[in-house]
Each structure stands twice: as C-alpha cells, then as structure tokens.
Automatic annotation (TrEMBL):
<dbReference type="InterPro" id="IPR013783">
    <property type="entry name" value="Ig-like_fold"/>
</dbReference>
<dbReference type="Pfam" id="PF13585">
    <property type="entry name" value="CHU_C"/>
</dbReference>
<protein>
    <submittedName>
        <fullName>T9SS type B sorting domain-containing protein</fullName>
    </submittedName>
</protein>
<dbReference type="InterPro" id="IPR036116">
    <property type="entry name" value="FN3_sf"/>
</dbReference>
<feature type="domain" description="Fibronectin type-III">
    <location>
        <begin position="759"/>
        <end position="855"/>
    </location>
</feature>
<dbReference type="InterPro" id="IPR003961">
    <property type="entry name" value="FN3_dom"/>
</dbReference>
<dbReference type="InterPro" id="IPR026341">
    <property type="entry name" value="T9SS_type_B"/>
</dbReference>
Length: 957
C-alpha cells in the first residue's frame, strides 16, 4: 500500500474514534478581530479578538495562552488577558480577549495579534505547521464623522468539516449593525517573525487547497477543475471539491463600505478538516430572499433531508438572532429588540424548522439582513459530521401610510382638497431629532390603478404622479390648492421619507384615494370653427351647466360671461357676451356663436366665468372654466404631397382618438370629402396627403402642382379624468389650402458635434486655455432621402439653450465640416441648413449642443505648516469654466470658521480673524456656478469634510 495513503487512512480511522468534529495538533485553529466605538465624545473603541483553540491535542498550549499582545497601529502594544474560554464541543474552545482603547486622533489604523503555534500537520502550509505564528489583523478608519461605528461581527463559528469529492461551503454570517455594505474576497493566511509581532506577511510556502495539493483535483460534478472561492456579495465560501483528506487553513477578508468609501476590513483565518468518510452531506431546500414592511411577522420555513437517513440538527445565524458564535446572547444587542427565533423539529433523515421574527420600526434600514441556515448530520462516532448551509436575505422597509382620505374643501372658489391620514407611527428612533423625516404628497389626474413591485419604496414620476408638497412626519393633514381644475378626478398617494442611511430612504407608497372637485362652474365641451374667412369667420362655443349646483338652493339669477383671447395659447381675454340663466331645463343658454372673426389667420381661445346672485342682490363670481381653443391646422407643401399638422389646446384630451381629415380640390367653396382617419397620440398631430386614400368610396389621385387643395380636420376628444361629461367631443379646425411642390428642395442635414470628454486628463489639458473650439460635421443628403443638391451650408450658433437661446449665423461654407474657433467656452448649440444653387434654404438640421463638465475636485486633507507643501486647502486641480465659487468652513460644532469668494479658496487653516485653527476635522459647503449652456441652471453645492493636520498634533476644530 502507498505510504501516504496508509498514513491518511490511519489518521482518519483515529479521528473517527474521537468525535464528529475533528482537530489534529496544537493550538490555534481560527480567529478574527472586531471593533466597535463606545464613546460618542471620544475615539474610544472596544477591541475583541475571537479565537478557536484545539483542546484535544493543544490543551497545554491553550492553557498557556492566558493573554495576548495587541498592536494598535499607532505604535502602541497592549497586553490583554483572556476574558472568555468556553468549549464549543469536546475538541474546540472559543477564546475571547477584549479591552478598550482610546485613539488620540483620526486616521487609519491596523490592529493585529500574533499567537505562537498554529495547528500541526496543516498540509497546505509548510511543515511543521506548528512552528508558524498565527497572525491576524483588522483595519479600521478612526473618524468622529463615522459615529459609533462597528466592524461587522462574524456569528457563524468556523467549525465545519468536509469530505473528499463533495462540495464544501462556509459562510461567516457577518452582520454589520450600522447597516454598512459588506464585500468579500479571498486572502492568504498570515504569519509574523520573532521580534516583529506587529508586522505580518503571507505564510511562506502556502498552497491553494483546491489545486496546490492535487493539481488534477476535480469538482463534485467531475466536469471541471476543483475551485476555491468566495462570493463577493453573499460571503458564501465554497470549495468544489476537496481531493485529499487532511487539515487545511485558508483566509478571507470582509470589507466594510459606506457611501462608496471603504472604511474598514477584517480578516478571518479558519481551518477546514477534510476526511475520506463515506458520509454524505445533508441537503437544504432552497430559501428565497424576502422583503417585508416593518411590523410584519416573518415566518420562514426551513427543511433539510439527509441522503443517509441520519439524524439532523438545524441552526441559524445572523444579526436578527442576537447570538454570539457560541450561542450566548450578544451584549449589547446588535439588532434592536425583538429578536428572531428558530423552532426546530428533528426527525430521522429530515429536520424542519421555522424562523419567526416579529419585525419592528427599529429594524428599518437600507441594507438587507443576511441570515444563514445551517444543518449538520449526526452520523455516529465512526464518520465525519458534515454540514450544509444556505444564506438568504431579508429586507425590512418602512410600511405604507394608512387611512388616506380626501375631501373637497368649501372655499370661496371650491378649488381645494383636504387630505388626512392616520398618524404615521413607524418612525425609527434615530430620526426623531434630525428634523429631516417628512411625508411626501403626490397627485395625478385620473384614478388608474398603480402597478408596483412587492419591494418597491417611494413613488416614481413614471407612474404619472407628481410631488405637490411635503409636511413634517408628525403631521397627518395636507390641503391641496395648486392648479386644481373643475371636472377632473384626482388621485392622491403619500410616502414617508427618512434620512437615507442607514434607514431605508422612503416607505412603501400608500393606497390611493380618488376625488372629484364639485362642479360649481361649467365645463366647455366645444370650440369648433363653423366657417373660415378673414373677416366673417364663425366659431360655436358650447358648455355644460354647473352639475354640482342645485338651483333650489338659491343664487338665481345666474350668469355666464364669455371671454375670448386670440391665438391657440392666447391670454388676452376680453368679455364678448353675457348670458343670464335660471338653470331651468329646456333653455338654450349654454351655447354662443361668435361671428365676425378672422378664422383664416387665427385660432381663438374661450373661457366661461360663472356668476350667481348674492343675498344682497349683487352678481358674485363663483368660478371659471378651464380655457379651450379652436383646433389650428397648418399645411406644409412638399414634393407631390402636402403635409398636415394640427394642434389643440383644451381641458379635455384629444390623444388616443381617431381624427378625420377632409379635402377639397376646388378651394373653400368646393365640397369637402373625407379622405383619411388618423389615429393620433401626442401633439402636433400629423398626416401626409399623397392623393392616395384607403377609405372605401374615395378615389385615389396624384396631387397636381397646378391645383390648390383645401383641408379641414375634425378633432375628436374626451374628458378622460371626469365622469361629469360622457361621450366624444367633436371640433372642426379652420379650412387651409396649399399646392404641392413640383421639384425637390434642400433637405435637413444630419449634424454631429465632437463631444467634450469629462475625464481628468482632458480637463487638465484645458486648464491654461483661454480660447476654445468645437468641431462640427454633417451628412448631406441624409441616408435614404431624395434632396436637391446643396451649393453651400449655413451654420447657426447660440451660446445658450432654453429660454435664453438665440441663434445667429456663424458661417456659410461649401464643405460638410467646420471648426468653430476663438470661443470663450465650449458651451453652445448649433444647427445647419442646406442652400440650393437657386438660393433656396432648406429646413434646419437637428440641433446639437455642447456643455461644460461641472468638475470641481476638493482634497480631504491639508497641512498648513508653512513648509511649502500642501499649506493651502484649494481645488485639487484647475477647474475649467467656473464662474464663481462661494466657500464656508465650519468646525465640528457647526461654528463658522472661514468664508471666501475666491475661486481658488486658498484656506490657510486660519479663521476669518487670522487665528490658527487646531488640527481636526472641519466641514465645508462650497457653492460652484459653471458657465454652461443654461444660464439659469442651479449651482453645484458640494458638502464634505477636510482634515487639518499640524506638526504639534493638537486636536480640535
């Protein structure tokens, strides 16, 4: 028999006589260092080393390790006695060394411990492995701005065994009580040398367990090479799969991130025992991730089976249980009360369990809670005990506000809706003094149901809802008076919002409530053009009676006053008539025919004001309708065709309907024939008439350039957000006439602009420039279009976009590219047109714009020691296109220390009175305005902190 095989077989048989969980030689099996800040006024930390010692073959060494030396990263070494030594099983003890230490100032510190004597016969380490030091470290960022921060704690002890040929997994059940994000990566176990306990390095001679022992090792499925790795998100460490029995040590690092910044990392160095046992690992049924509102009772069923029919033991780990790795209660609690419990019912070959957790408002946070379910079999003393695990996540979100109600208010105009809801009681304790928690009120027109995911918080504007107001979280009423319109149904929803970290940002959106404003005023239902003329045009206006008003309640006589403005969006309303009404049925008092108009050149817009008689006999205005305009048709002649566009401006919707196009060949006097029915969505509405028609009974023809064609459009609309007016609303545009073109003309070119790269290298290259340029090129004719050849091109430029945009001609060029030079900034917009040999200028191309890069980089440390290096706090690199900078510096208590309007800031560490400020953390608010496209764009507000260091090390600020 092969000598190595004989050795391992004898070793496995020996271990099989000892216990289900095995250790081999001396002393240290695993460990990690964790910390937590304990004093809000000082940089005082509780530092804990948790180690796992071999109590079978290393008891003597374990007895002697009554204290260890901690290296604190600031030059200090502290000897700390052992505070806990407790057996987890007959072979392994958990040992805890804990003390408190106060750092003198902020910084990044590496805490480490070196312990003599790793376990002997660890086959992936150099031999004898008992001569290798166990060296472990944790790195923390000491900073008062991080609050009472803690590193993650590892709640699952590293005590699982593995079998050759089977996939092995471990998860540390890391929990961060501050809700920081965790990431995982593999590492190499560390050692130190005699006389240098504070310096560690990778164990010399370390071999990767997956491939370093047997290069031909296969995974469990036997379809690939063996692997060893860790999931960077969940922390599942899996070895697929061990090939050689024995004892191994590996290590991995857990990174702690907050707001995208790495603030610390801890290392776990752990041991894995692999045997050739014939035992098969248990199997856990899949457990899905969960998302629940705070206050819900969570019940998670767990079921595991054993292929060998052996008895199973089920456990669970995670912060929600508030238990140490040894099963004792964690103190102080790492999760606010109440805690979760696991109820287990073992059976032969099967075990079932139920995790029960009554969640509370204090459990709301941005990060999920990681939970680890672990099942181990009990195969007897002749086989290795094996485990299976599965991690899943529970997210606790703020619950939806309840009891939302809406009531129209009895005001002078009636245009107010009062909202009320049940007091919102699920307020996490840490937000009660911040003053930033609030209730968001959203509104939309119409009462369509809202589709959202089961774990969706907040309310997206894509749902059609718009934020209309906020109130403090303790308020449970809101009155909406903004932009309400008569005859419209409004839907309201509310959302609770908290500070974003570490709570959860926003709650689930409430159920919606729908309400109509009472119709105390009419609704316009028609503004249609009866005839088209430049002097004798005519428009008919119709409206409803005030449905919400009962004439028997008084107020008669009533009066409608009709107002008119010129244009589709006109606002120059002038009263043109008044109609007295008793609101009695059968009286035609809701129609007015407006004559003597120039409907050929103008659209007209109407408004109806409604009056009632007061008890004193005076006419009093009750309310007014939303204005409505007549449809406006525009014709654009093209090659052998005519393009029609029409627009509307009405309180009802003309979208999602089929509009009707009429055409006449002999002018306005000729008969108008229906030639097309056009489904429309979104203005302006469009139709191109080529002479062909798909309507039955309409003869197709080729449009002649010698003929004049006249058109009229019938728009179709509906009040989609109210039940007050049912049915379709029909309105005609004016008649417009045009002839098609008989030749091609210039087309619109396709314009492009070389974009400005916003990377640091490009910005640095622009630092010393005072003159800039933009490179433009265009395509003519655009692909697939038949256009008249261009003789030259006109390029137009506007320095600004938006309301301030004003284009002017830059150049006329025969080429299809241009470099616009001698600019004071790259910001600007362009379009180009083609000009034919006949001098006809075609339509404008697409508009392209270049904007500046709003970059302003600030360092987070400076040393005003007058040594000529880093003496001033100022932007880290030149900031191009900056118009102005306003800076205010505060100390840690919020006191204002320094302010300046200097774009380079140049703070030398003194206050405004010229007094030197002590070392410490200072906070800044910098308001930067950039010379970009939009002159009305809001400034960029930068808030953060900067560390001031002086040679004397004084702290303060």
């Amino acid at each position: 028999m092969h000598a190595r095989y004989t050795y391992w077989l004898g070793l496995v048989l020996l271990l099989g006589l000892l216990a289900p969980t095995f250790t081999y030689a001396t002393h240290v099996r695993a460990g990690e260092i964790t910390t937590r800040r304990v004093d809000p006024n000082r940089l005082e930390y509780e530092i804990t080393l948790t180690t796992y010692f071999d109590e079978l073959n290393g008891r003597i060494a374990s007895d002697q390790t009554n204290s260890v030396d901690f290296c604190l990263g600031d030059g200090s070494i502290v000897n700390v006695p052992r505070s806990v030594r407790r057996n987890i099983n007959s072979n392994t003890s958990i040992n805890i060394y804990r003390f408190r230490y106060t750092y003198q100032g902020p910084g990044v510190y590496q805490i480490s411990v070196a312990i003599e004597k790793r376990n002997d016969r660890t086959i992936n380490l150099r031999q004898p492995s008992q001569d290798i030091t166990f060296w472990i470290r944790t790195t923390i960022q000491v900073n008062a701005g991080l609050g009472l921060n803690s590193t993650p704690v590892l709640l699952n002890p590293p005590l699982d065994s593995a079998r050759t040929g089977q996939r092995f997994c471990h998860n540390p059940a890391a929990f961060d009580s501050d809700g920081d994000s965790l990431a995982y990566r593999m590492a190499i176990p560390q050692e130190s040398t005699t006389g240098a306990p504070c310096r560690g390095f990778a164990v010399n001679g370390y071999r990767d367990p997956a491939r370093g022992i047997d290069p031909n090792a296969q995974n469990e499925a036997r379809n690939g090479q063996a692997t060893l790795g860790i999931n960077p998100t969940t922390g599942d460490l899996c070895w697929d799969s061990p090939a050689v029995a024995g004892q191994y040590n590996i290590a991995f690092i857990i990174e702690e991130w907050r707001d995208g910044v790495l603030i610390g990392e801890i290392t776990r160095d752990m041991q894995i025992i692999v045997t050739d046992s014939r035992n098969n690992r248990p199997l856990l049924d899949p457990i899905p991730d969960l998302c629940r509102e705070a206050g819900s009772l969570i019940e998670v069923p767990i079921r595991a089976t054993d292929p060998d029919g052996q008895r199973l033991e089920l456990t669970a780990f995670g912060g929600i249980f508030n238990r140490n790795p040894d099963g004792t209660q964690y103190n102080p609690p790492i999760v606010p009360l109440p805690f979760a419990t696991l109820i287990s019912q073992p059976q032969s070959g099967t075990v079932t369990g139920l995790i029960r957790w009554q969640t509370a408002c204090a459990h709301i946070r941005q990060e999920e809670y990681d939970v680890l379910a672990r099942v181990v079999d009990v195969p007897g003393r002749t086989a290795t005990q094996l485990a299976a695990l599965q991690s899943f996540r529970i997210r606790i979100i703020a619950p939806r506000p309840q009891g939302l109600r809406a009531t129209p208010q009895a005001t002078a105009t009636g245009r107010a809706i009062r909202l009320s809801w049940n007091p919102y009681t699920c307020i996490p304790p840490s937000t009660t003094t911040t003053g930033t928690s609030e209730m968001l009120v959203y509104r939309r027109e119409g009462c369509a149901p809202l589709q959202s995911g089961t774990c969706t918080t907040g309310l997206s504007t894509s749902t059609g809802y718009a934020l209309i107001g906020t109130v403090p979280i303790g308020t449970n009423t809101f009155t909406d008076t903004t932009g309400l319109r008569r005859g419209i149904q409004y839907s309201y929803r509310i959302v609770a919002r908290f500070p974003p970290v570490p709570l959860g940002g926003e709650s689930v959106v409430s159920d919606g409530v729908c309400v109509d404003l009472p119709l105390l005023a009419p609704l316009i239902t028609q503004v249609t053009v009866d005839s088209t003329d430049n002097q004798r045009g005519q428009i008919t206006v119709r409206w409803t009676r005030p449905i919400g008003l009962n004439p028997a309640d008084g107020g008669a006589p009533f009066q409608y006053r009709v107002f008119r403005a010129t244009g589709l969006t006109g606002t120059d309303f002038t009263q043109i008539t008044a109609i007295t009404s008793s609101l009695q049925p059968g009286v035609a008092d809701t129609v007015f025919v407006d004559r003597g108009l120039n409907t050929q050149a103008n659209a007209y817009r109407y408004r109806i004001d409604f009056f009632q008689t007061s008890p004193q006999g005076a006419l009093t205005r009750v309310d007014a309708t939303e204005p409505a305009a007549s449809p406006r048709l525009t014709l654009n002649p093209a090659l052998r065709q005519i393009e029609l566009t029409w627009a509307t401006n009405t309180p009802w919707s003309n979208d999602n309907q089929t509009h009707v196009v009429f055409r006449s060949r002999r002018g306005t006097a000729g008969p108008l024939v229906e030639v097309a029915r056009v489904p429309v969505q979104g203005q302006p509405y469009r139709y191109t008439d080529t002479g062909n028609s798909t309507l039955a009974g309409v003869q197709s023809l080729s449009l002649s350039v010698d003929s004049n064609y006249c058109y009229r459009v019938l728009t179709v609309g509906r009040y989609t957000s109210t039940t007050a007016v049912r049915g379709l609303l029909l309105n005609y545009s004016q008649i417009a006439c045009a002839s098609p073109l008989d030749t091609t003309r210039p087309c619109a070119p396709r314009l492009s602009l070389d974009s400005l790269a916003c990377d640091p290298a490009t910005q640095q290259a622009l630092c010393n420039q005072t003159s800039f340029s933009n490179n433009l090129r265009w395509q003519y004719p655009p692909a697939g279009q038949s256009c008249e050849p261009a003789d030259r091109y006109n390029l137009y430029y506007s320095r600004f976009s938006g309301p301030a945009q004003s284009f002017s001609l830059v150049t006329t060029t025969p080429t299809t590219s241009f470099r616009h030079q001698s600019l004071t900034t790259v910001a600007g917009c362009y379009y180009v047109t083609a000009v034919s040999r006949r001098g006809i200028e075609g339509p404008a191309s697409n508009t392209v714009c270049q904007d500046v890069c709003p970059q302003f980089v600030l360092p987070n440390v400076f040393t005003p020691n007058n040594d000529g290096r880093n003496d001033l706090w100022q932007p880290g690199s030149c900031s191009v296109f900056v118009v102005s900078v306003e800076t205010v510096i505060y100390n840690r208590w919020g006191g204002r220390v320094f302010s300046t309007s200097d774009p380079q800031i140049r703070w030398d560490g003194r206050n405004s009175a010229g007094q030197e400020q002590p070392s410490g953390l200072y906070y800044y608010e910098v308001v930067v305005r950039f010379g970009g496209l939009d002159p009305s764009a809001p400034p960029v507000v930068l808030k953060g902190w900067v560390q001031l260091f002086r040679e004397n090390g004084a702290s303060g600020g």
